DNA sequence: CTCCCATCACTACATTTGTAGTTGCCACAT
DNA sequence: ATGTGGCAACTACAAATGTAGTGATGGGAG
């Protein structure tokens, strides 16, 4: 896989939209994001261009000659990279304090807690 | 509490040093960070100045007239803010997927797992 | 008394990010 | 043929960030 490019906050918004549904054209995306972001179409286009430069997106021409964008990297890879970097920056790279922090600062349902416990069991260092 | 200023990555390094031991002078900090960062003293000074502007640090004159820096915001508050923003950006604001992600991507000891389970129990939504 | 070093305040400058505006080009409706 | 509406390419520009350099200054070493 491509080494998960650095994706800024605004860019991340665009990526999410495309991870959710791809491919899409610039104007489709603009309309889709308009309610949440209020971005001008050119803003979206700039972000798209930058994401292509960074290798996070690919483009394809559709039949009618217009361009369409789609992810070039998997969401999971980017999440992992971002998470890694965040954990490094804020928790000195240690997973446990991070987990403790978020566990303490969240309200979870009993069901969620059950689920998480199960996952924890599977992450036992062997 | 002060509304937890936005702290950049390099700045975070400096903050950690001061949360760890404060107050410290610019040159003390420079020496302390040198091994890890290779920063010139002026770089550290710039970061310190910016952090003071942002309200993340305060200064005090020590007896010999030189200046000393110390945190003006608590680490926990900054961690919470950063964590909040990260969770928003990458997990759409939902704690559970975040916890799942980090639980799955970590190797934990049995002891750590026990501890985390206990904390999970306490975060039960009432 | 003088010169140098530590400190501090300013200035510098390239990149990245957020957020567009401007221009050029082409197919399609008149 | 022609104007217009879309789309793409390029340009703009301020704030934040990373990483220093330069100039002024005051107090000690000699």
Report on this model:
2 copies of one chain form a homodimer. Chain A is mostly helical and 126 residues long. The first copy, chain A, has 2 domains: 1-93, Winged helix-like DNA-binding domain superfamily/Winged helix DNA-binding domain (Arc Repressor Mutant, subunit A); 95-126, no CATH class. Helix content of chain A is 61%, strand content 8%. Chain A is built from 6 helices and 2 strands, in the order H-H-H-E-E-H-H-H. Chain A has a two-stranded antiparallel sheet with strand order 1-2. In chain A, helix 2 packs across helix 3. Chain A is elongated. The two termini of chain A are 27 Å apart. The mean pLDDT of chain A is 96. Chain A binds chain B through residues 9, 12, 16, 79-80, 82-83, 86-87, 89-92, 95-96, 98-110, 112-113, 115-117, 119-125, and chain B through 9, 12, 16, 79-80, 82-83, 86-87, 89-92, 95-96, 98-110, 112-113, 115-117, 119-125. Chain A binds a DNA duplex (30 and 30 nucleotides) through residues 6, 8-11, 25-27, 39-43, 45-47, 49-50, 65-67.
Q: What descriptive keywords fit this protein?
A:
126 residues; mainly alpha; 2 domains; two-stranded antiparallel ribbon; 6 helices; elongated; DNA-binding
Question: What is the string of helix and strand elements of chain A?
Answer: HHHEEHHH
Question: End-to-end distance of chain A, in Å?
Answer: 27 Å
The dominant shape of chain A is: elongated
How many DSSP helices of chain A? 6
Strand order of the largest sheet of chain A: 1-2
